[in-house]
Amino acid sequence: MIIDFERLKEISDIHGDSFYLLDSKKFEQNYKELQKAFRDIYSNTYIAYSYKTNYIPKLCKIVNENGGFAEVVSDMEYQIALKIGVESQNIYYNGPYKNPSAVEKLLLDGGIVNVDSHYELEIIKIIASKYPENLLSVGLRCNFDINDGVKSRFGFDVESEDFVDVINLINDINNIELTGLHCHFASRYIETWTGRPERMLNLISKYFNEPPKFISVGGGLFGKMAPSLKEQFDFDIPSYEDYAEVVATQFRDFFEDMEFSKQPKLIIEPGSALVGDAMKFAAKVINIKDIRGKKMATLAGSIYNINPTLNKKNPPVKAYHNVENEDKLRMYEDIDLGGYTCIESDYLYRGYTGEMSVGDYMVFENVGSYSVVLKPPFILPNFAVVDYNEETNSIEIIKHRETFDDVFRTYEF
Ligand SMILES: *Cc1c(COP(=O)(O)O)cnc(C)c1O
After folding, report:
1. What pTM did the predictor assign?
2. Of the four, 241, 268, 327, 371, which is 20 to 30 A from 339 by CA?
3. Would you call 113 exposed, middle or buried from its count of C-beta atoms within 10 A (0-12, 13-18, 19+)?
4. 73 CB under 6 A from ligand 1?
């Protein structure tokens, strides 16, 4: 069963004029499909889900239940992983700013810390000397040029003296083991992907006698999109299989002659690629006006709910008409759908064409990545998230809408 106006109205009556619709089934399907695409070529592939992209605990649990890992970049996210019962050896702690006590706890519990800079290594050296009986597992974030026109600020420049020094330093300490190498670049274009496994595998040849336990090539993969979104890009959007072809094939060829137990885990760290199309946002149409010939609607949602990175793309959108208001239904051409904030540029969609009336719900698709996690508490607290199951037409509350207290608890009055 596909959602209709009546169902949206029912959800809205409980949870407010705007709310997110999660599709956790879709997320799980994406997870399995992406994993299969890679495993069909290189069977020792694992998904470490990027928590920061959308850390809804239910999603993190789905990953854990399917044998996936947690890719965290803060102690806050590390705590989510612990809270939902992820085993420490399945937690990869990345990012440029790490909490020393979280680093210590994770390392002592057998998790992996991917070192981003020298200052982290100093922290880890102290932990190592404090606990000489524990073997600590670290990886190194590698930085090289992937021809995307960006000079990344993360990790160690693999062509520098620094890199060699860091490897030597780690090898000199008995109870720190360099168990893997890691890289991540934000660019999603397929052309920028060829070099990632290539450079990583070169580093393995150069610096490791035996292959390490893991090689992580990071995230930065496109997810699935509706045609209306795809056509706003001036290049083809790669599929899961396209990425697997480029990445997993190089791993397969490189480790072909090695017995399976020695082949390293290939880790990918998708966020957007799994969750982008697994969430929608429903916003009620509050009013429609005409300003000097320009039609504009005000919605009970904002661009900051669906696209806080303001990437200028129009999301796929569907209107669900208010059945009680059918006589007011009008055809609009090139109407802009504005948000509830007082920012002039707050438009969820520019140039919409279709029928609309006040009280309708506009449902925006492909809003799963960098939305709930990045929405500022500007003008309104954040909205509810409900998991909507299309097969059973049932809903499950995932996050309650925020209240005044949620936003102001930390302020002194
Ligand atoms: C953000 C991030 C990811 C996921 O990126 P997407 O944009 O969701 O593809 C993966 N790994 C690291 C280290 C990250 O910082």
Report:
1. 0.97
2. 327
3. buried
4. yes
